[in-house]
Amino acid sequence: MLSKMKDFGFSVNKSRVIDYDQNDRALFYYLMRVEPSVSLCIACGACTATCSAGAFSSLYFHKIMLSIRRGEKVYIAKEITQCMLCGKCQLVCPKNVNTRGVILQIMSFLQSSQL
Ligand code: SF4
Ligand code: SF4
Question: Mind listing the domains of the chain with CATH numbers?
Fold first, then answer.
């Protein structure tokens, strides 16, 4: 039935349920300990708007920040490798999040947890 439907050039978004029971929030708790400024993020997107890598890749740093809270470790591990550690995101952050520090700690955590 669905295959016979006319294609109007748009589709219904996939379900985006966040299951906190399935997600692993260990990275969030780790960052709260070693880089507490992570908790100041308001997901405004200023970091993404200025990101050097974002213009050429799928890296959206505000989504990384949201995923940290949600415990979406697989997504973070895939995307964070595209960061060039330039620090521009830190210069524009209105909440003064130490974004570069957050990124370095994410890399260190992922390396030690061997995801
Ligand atoms: S600019 Fe700062 S407050 Fe805004 S989303 Fe990025 S890290 Fe969070
Ligand atoms: S440090 Fe990484 S996330 Fe931040 S602006 Fe540079 S490339 Fe983007």
Answer: 24-113 (1.10.1060.10)
